[in-house]
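Section 4.2 – Deliverable D4.2 (structural model, holo form)

The reporting period included a commitment to supply a predicted holo structure for the target in complex with T5A. Inputs used:
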Amino acid sequence: MNKGIFITFEGGEGSGKSTQIKLLNEYFEKKGKSVVLTREPGGSEGAEEIRNLLLKGGIDRWDKKTEILLFLAARRDHLVKKVWPALNEGKIVLSDRFHDSTIAYQCFGYGYDEAIEKDISDLYQFISDGFKPDLTIVLDIEPEKGIFRSKSRFGNDEQRFEQMDLSFHQNIRQAFLSLAKKEPQRFIVVNADQSIEEIHLELIKKLEERLNANGARAD
Ligand code: T5A
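Output (structure tokens):
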């Protein structure tokens, strides 16, 4: 099991995850690596259907617990149908968001809730048997700047979470930073308030150092 490398990207809205994933994909492909790009919510056929339910519509479309169950159902389908098969074939899987987003958004976004955190942790164990990413890259940027970038894009109708107020997004930023502090061996934090090229270079440098240290060289 898990001969490949599973790398997840996390961060607030518009922090540049999709942009950096594409650049990292090109970087790995130049080295002859076989890479799978994916995202959450979504990534598999069934999970993409659930994505539409989650990201479109008004803020109050779902109550808190229904929302969590939908994210976790989508994650299970994504793991079973796409992530685990690719890892078993020795591929590098790059995912735009994964379970840390559920902890940050559903557990800290609306204000920290200890009971919800415990429930999310139990549900995650149920759907994943404790499986975790090998590495998680957090693109860190002030929420105002990220949301501005995200909203300037044309034709994006998946804005359910972007409509939340600023304190929601500030809670999320702090949540990602504290998750990174708790698990420094899994997380890499990159300053996302730089040019696209500068972020890419910082990311590659930190990633290579970490992969070498973990004995999982990517060259
Ligand atoms: N969610 C998700 C949960 O609540 N719980 C969960 O468990 C999960 C998995 C996903 C939403 O669902 C929530 C979180 C999200 O609200 P999404 O559409 O996938 O929705 O939203 P995001 O992941 O936030 O994706 P975005 O596309 O909005 O942001 P990205 O991918 O971080 O940013 P990117 O690369 O698309 O860039 C945004 C814009 O900025 C430009 C790009 O060209 C683009 O126009 N840009 C830069 N501009 C200047 N300088 C830079 N360095 C730039 N980098 C990119």
